[in-house]
Amino acid sequence: MALDDRDDPDRTAPLPAAAAWLGYGGLLPFAAGAAGAWLASGFAQAAIGAALLCYGGAILSFLGGIHWGWGAQAGADRVAARLGWSVLPSLWAAAAMTAGLLTGPRVGYGALVAGLLLWRLLEAAVCPPGPVAPWYPRLRRHLTFGASACLVLAALASQSA
């Protein structure tokens, strides 16, 4: 069974307007950061890079928060597992942001992309199932790849390694 089949059994589930606006709207700072990385130089590019690292880290942490919320609702036998998994994105995000700020944005962008993609795979394949709406996996997949593409574009534009 392909990841898509296991991850999104109901590909026709309608996406609520609020989820679409808020979810896809959340890609705008990623797109603006990627554009800024290409259009700016010097201090402005560095400031945009730091802001993009912080936003990417916040989003990765938010993804763990979703699972923390599910863990708070889980049966007693699943609470520890759900809460344990839920802190991984925040830890990864902190390391990615720190690496990016200390060594250059490319390293941080790459670490954020890896974190987003790894968490998506882990969420789909390993994490215990949660009370998820049928449209959620599809939206998450779109947002993960959109954010990752913007971070890759920003990394290609970055002056420092």
TrEMBL record:
Pfam families tied to this protein: DUF3429
Transmembrane segments: 21-40, 46-71, 83-102
Superkingdom of origin organism: Bacteria
tRNA-binding keyword on record: no
Coiled coil (residue ranges): none
Alphabetical list of InterPro entries matching this protein: DUF3429
Keywords attached to this entry: Membrane, Transmembrane, Transmembrane helix
Official protein name in the record: DUF3429 domain-containing protein
Organism from which the protein derives: Tepidimonas fonticaldi
